[in-house]
Amino acid sequence: MSIKVNNPIGKKHRQETSSDRFQWIGKRVPRIDGPEKVTGELQYMTDRSYPNMVWGKVLRAKYPHARITNIDTTQAKVLPGVICVLTYRDIPGFNGFGIVTPDQPVLCEDVVRCTADAVALVAAETNEIAEEALNLIQVDYEPLEVVADAEYAMTEQAPQLHPDGNIHSHVKINNGDVNQAFEEADYIFENTYYSPRQMHAFIETEGGWGMLEEDGVLTIQCPGQYAYRDRLQISRALGLNPESIHVISSPNGGAFGGKDEITVQIYLALLALHSGGRPVKIHLSREESVQAGMKRHPFKVQVKTAAKKDGTIIANQVRAVADTGAYASLGPAVIALAVEHACGPYKIPHVDIEGFCVYTNNGIAGAFRGFGVNQVCVGIETHLDMTAEKIGMDPIEIRKINAYRQGETSSIGHVVKSSVGTHQTLDKAQNCDLWVNRASYKKQPSEPWKKRGVAVATSFHGVGMGIGTPDYGAASIELLPDGRLKVAVGCEEIGTGNGTVYAQVCAEMLHCDMSDITVVQGDTSETLDGGTVTASRSIYTGSKAIATVAPQMIQLLAETAAEILHTPAKNMEIENSTVIDKKDPSNSLTFIEIYDYLSKAKASTKVNGHFYLPKEKEEIKGSGGAPHHIYGYMTHVVMVEVDTLTGETDVLRVVSIPDCGRVMNLQGLEGQTEGGAIMGIGYTLYEDVAIEEGYHKTKNFADYIFPTIRETPEIETIPVEDPEPTNPFGAKGIGEVVMIPIIPAIMSAIYDATGARVRHLPATPERIFEAMKPMNKSAPISSR
Amino acid sequence: MKVSEMEMISPTSVHECLHALTDQQKSSRLIAGGTDAVVRMKDRNWMPDIWINIKGLKELRYIREDASGLHIGPLTTHTDIVKSELLQSKADVLTFAAKEVGATQMQNMGTLGGNLGTASPAGDTIPALYVLDAHIQLSSLHQIRSVPIKDFFIGPGKTVIKPDEMISDIVIRPQEKNEIGIFEKLGPRKAQSISIVNFTASLKIKAQTRQCIGGKLAFGSVAPTIIRAKKCESMLLLDPLDEHMIQNIAKVAWKEVAPISDIRASANYRKDMASALLERGLYRLMKRWENK
Ligand SMILES: Cc1cc2nc3c(=O)[nH]c(=O)nc-3n(C[C@H](O)[C@H](O)[C@H](O)COP(=O)(O)OP(=O)(O)OC[C@H]3O[C@@H](n4cnc5c(N)ncnc54)[C@H](O)[C@@H]3O)c2cc1C
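# flavin-adenine dinucleotide complex -> structure
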């Protein structure tokens, strides 16, 4: 995708601080793709159509666990209008995919392990004919015992779903001696927490286009989160040279991690090889997306925490079991991150943390904003509040006592060298209106039987990949004939507004107007491989990559101008898309003139650059990749109102206090903090995909409840800017942590309001009502 | 049967529509706002040979009053109901219910006739029609009959409408001067949600007092069809409706309902919520009464 920058900067300025030295960075800049998105001019890829197109469909497994004894496609193949019917026999290369462990068959051969499994593909003249053809494919199954529970899966009796057993990964971090600490503790809190199977619920379901071009190039247009890795996985399944595959993965109608793994790219590629050069479209219905798409891992987390009377937490023991469904995808990485973050941004001396990534027949779980931290932040934050209540300490104070500072040793035992903003975020929380005046807000419930509560929570989230996964960024800048600059970064635009920041950075570095920048993202023929748009990394990585390559462009411009003007290059300066001789300002050349000169000389007008993300040197043994070098920190303050008659809970106010290093674009940051807060509210109060015995009980958005505008509270953003030294602008990442501490904050606010603790999320009205029952003996509430 | 093989006709008068319904060669179904019909077609539950599109029949979209009561045309949308001053003053409870159907888009497209036609136990306007003693007028080419609302539904999704009939009018009694209503809905969220339980009340109250002199209470989504809470209704008359009295009635409410457990809520919670919504509803109703 390429987008022109039209209306570069908004009028609204906040009180500028450190960013004053920048012209573009840190300003409240409207999104460069805003007008196109608002007017609908920018189409979803899945809304496009082509003359001569054909429709593809996927036959999913009928059972959550069964042996396939026969697949007969004869009848489907002869149905008029059917172009091809494909099974595992038609896969030229390796029949599997998966980001780390490719254990998921492209098309199942002998066994199906969940109802997301694909068994056959059809291409036909119309969507309806394709659908009809699916019904004509005869698959004979022998149903097998369904593994519906992760802890059952870990037992000897459970059928083994994969050759290496059902425990796909087991990671641990141990520090100090928890048993000793439990003996020395003044208080011990021990609880079990259950988390929901949240759905990404992007507005654009999985889909895209496959086309075999006349020159033999296979073009896959499919919204994704890492075009180069998608290309690799496609090429592996097709046995094709990656160079002959062109993947376009941006723009994207929402992803949140749910399009990190292969969605339909390989199906599109296979069908495109059999459709006689006609473009093939697959677009999942919402129902198919619910059944086949990735979900967040549901966790069971047992937490035992030891505290002293002075408020210090001296030990934390965590056992987390994650249901990864039938295939690994990024499950092991999710579990590793959960273990890394399970003790919060604190310096607890004795910890014993372990996590299991376990196969079941419950669909497939994978990457999702927060990546394991959402599930584990709840235990430590709740136990901090319990300790504070026991000893009569302020909830913010107890967090300050326990939170590490830059240079201190974290709970997982590494010295944190990068920026740490926890204390600043807690200071801001302590001084925000909602916290300062919480007592008076709590006294004003909207109706007499309603109760209000205010609570705070803090958390953190690693930025970029941990140890063991290559992590690099890349960008290119090209001078165009009209004197504009095209900046190309691999990281897709998945809705976050990263492209706007790329334009800001390029304009800043090259001293031109943002409207002179064109941004290209997510296209293997246009952008270099610069890693994924995941792990809260695309602002940190993209901005640094552009800053790495920009000096080369400056050099190219200056040297070319020097050559033309016969002046030393060191005298050259760039201003307003013009190269000027400092010594003699009348001596200048526009970017257009420089382009003309270079193009006549047949010289390249494009520069490329890349860099490696900083990493910790030593991995914590057995942790699966911890620690990260950089973390983003975050505190939330929330106010809820609970209807004690029904258990209905409204989040009334949210104060979102991110430490994101330098704020690159305040408007973009607010987009993240607000969207993250709403997603966190959904996670805590509403959302869950129900699966029973391997079958989805939740079918579509009619029974998957997520917040609407009526559940959206007032959200205030108070950024803390603790600059990260390894980014040229001081930026860190923010995409995930913005939805994390709000989860325990809402849970604690419900407790603050009612005295009831809900440990099984989502905290639906029914669960809250049940938890309140013991509290309400004397209250004016009807009871049976 | 494929969706693309379905036919749709759009009659230009009620008479033409009834003619089309009389043709029993092919299966047919009316489509008004389509907010239920299209969803069920997509799920392949409603797959008639012919859709009879009545959205354009302006003669069935009206709200008016005459000696026999308030008349609402079946094609009246929920938005029409919410905005009607006549209904706000004489059938407040129906306007409150219509305001809770889905959200704005559904209220603009969805019709009262469609809400009745779908006959969901969770249909939000239906309890209001119970407490307002609605009569549903059914027309066929050769006959017009009037069915009291309590006889109209025979089970979830089932009504007494015959294949050649359509709803042609909905008649309700106007509320009296001293009558005031309330609609309470508990769904999994505030907008676009199906009722877990809903509760409707319309009470006559003696001027300047809290003494109820007659009232009707109905619950939705707690049984195969709407339930009138007769025990609670008789309790309404015993004492002035102060907080204590309201709680006493609420304590009985759960016994009047017969809910099931499903993915949205357990039967026990629904029972508790029958009590809770009655308590909350009557409390809110009396508060409005006092401020009147
Ligand atoms: C997102 C969403 C949210 C919703 N939320 C709610 C809610 O909160 N509460 C609620 O009660 N409903 C809700 N609904 C259901 C629906 O909107 C209502 O039931 C609406 O009133 C249906 O009216 P309609 O005109 O769209 O009916 P249609 O879909 O056009 O028809 C529904 C049925 O009624 C029949 N019918 C229509 N008109 C007549 C007539 N004149 N005579 C005989 N039969 C007729 C049709 O043949 C069909 O069987 C929701 C639906 C959606 C999609």
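# post-check
The first helix of chain A runs from residue 34 to 39.
The first strand of chain A starts at residue 2 and ends at 4.
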